[in-house]
Write a structure and sequence with these properties.
By secondary structure, the protein is mainly alpha-helical. 64% of the residues lie in helices and 3% in strands.
Length: 391
């Protein structure tokens, strides 16, 4: 009697299994690279998910062309089981969300970080949950590729190992979760459920006469995204208005955290840093005296670049970095000294007063009462235009 043509059918599929595992890892890989500051999350997620989709499509096409039904069975089974397991993973957390714990906020943050917005929007929620689903599905495919003979114990261990690996990254710190007993109980329980239903999903393909039946896998490929959107809408209704400010879209070595008060010295120091020192510099804005969670402090009491004695932050930065500019840069430096160090003398310098008023008015027009990452580019562009104008 012939052996079943199952998901775990033969070692001859090892080449495909390796390819499926490798491409499946790119979804979560984009998040890991973001944590370690390689690039902006939007760039990483877009490029790496595109490579994953194209790579899997090429492998599937090659397997179909060569008549390798077993390889495509692994692919479809892993994707379907990943869909089912992701849905269960989120369903078991719904009661926790309704108990007053914003358990889904990391998913909302996926979307806000992708779009670079401070708080969830309809589009950011769709993108965040879509990225979350891509991770869950990719994890399912990776397990299907890795486990030659899937079983409940190995599937549960796989689910737990995923969370264990994430705990070795800045995941909890970036998305604002406290590592306490409640956090571990929730995450362990939900990942056990993920692993169990990953195995259950793969069992549906352990039959000798495996065929694609739309009624069989439609729940995973169509029903799961719709179900997740319902969960997302429910979570958004409960927590969107109160969810803390989103993490920045980039958390690497060129990120600075700065207070969001649009003072002239702060605005000019940011401009000098961005335009004369390092154009790759990025800024994340927080309320005054808020704890610095991302990047290096900038223009705040604990920062290196800040007001020092009789020097404004702008003057200190210019001297520290040996920035050489035109007379307009000197005018800006003098203005920041008068507004920051000796404001009582500002009235005696008409040029500095006019310049300070221009900075304040433009910051108010572009950003309102608080500086944000979204408005910063326009504000800096306005300063660029003023700087390049003929005196």
């Amino acid at each position: 009697m012939n052996a079943p043509a199952a998901v775990h059918d033969a070692p001859r599929q090892y080449g495909y299994r390796f390819g499926f595992f490798l491409f499946g890892s790119l979804s979560i890989g984009s998040l890991l690279f973001y944590f370690f500051g390689l690039a902006q999350f939007l760039t990483l997620a877009t490029v790496m998910l595109a490579v994953e989709i194209i790579g899997l499509a090429v492998l599937a096409a090659f397997a179909a062309r060569t008549g390798n039904d077993g390889a495509n069975r692994i692919l479809i089974a892993g994707l379907w089981a990943g869909c089912l397991a992701t849905l269960v993973y989120d369903v078991v957390r719904i009661p926790i969300a309704h108990a007053g714990i914003p358990i889904f906020k990391a998913i909302s943050y996926f979307g806000t970080v992708l779009l670079g917005v401070e708080h969830p929007t309809a589009l950011s929620e769709v993108l965040g949950w879509a990225y979350h689903l891509s991770n869950g599905v990719s994890f399912g495919l990776m397990y299907a590729a890795l486990a030659v003979r899937p079983g409940p114990i190995s599937a549960v261990l796989w689910g737990l190992s995923l969370e264990g690996a994430m705990l070795l990254t800045p995941y909890a710190e970036v998305f604002g979760y406290q590592r306490n007993a409640r956090f571990f109980a929730i995450t362990i329980g939900s990942h056990v459920a993920y692993g169990l239903f990953l195995w259950v999903g793969l069992r549906g393909f352990r039959i000798p006469t495996w065929r694609l039946r739309p009624a069989h896998y439609g729940l995973g490929f169509l029903g799961v995204p719709l179900s997740l959107m319902l969960i997302a809408a429910d979570s958004n209704r409960m927590y969107a208005a109160n969810i803390p400010q989103s993490p920045p879209s980039y958390v690497g070595p060129k990120l600075y955290t700065v207070w969001n008060v649009p003072e002239p010295d702060r605005v000019v120091a940011i401009w000098v840093m961005s335009r004369f020192v390092d154009r790759g510099t990025q800024f994340y804005f927080v309320e005054p005296f808020e704890k610095v969670r991302f990047g290096r402090p900038f223009d705040m009491p604990e920062a290196e670049i800040r007001r020092h004695g009789t020097e404004s932050a702008t003057e200190f930065l210019i001297h520290q970095q040996n920035v050489i500019g035109t007379s307009k840069l000197n005018d800006l430096a003098r203005m920041t000294n008068l507004t920051e160090v000796s404001p009582w003398m500002l009235a005696a310098d008409a040029q500095a007063g006019t310049l300070a008023e221009f900075i304040r008015d433009d910051a108010s027009k572009r950003c309102g009462r608080s500086l944000t990452s979204a408005c910063l580019a326009d504000l800096l562009d306005d300063l660029d235009r003023w700087y390049l104008e003929t005196p």
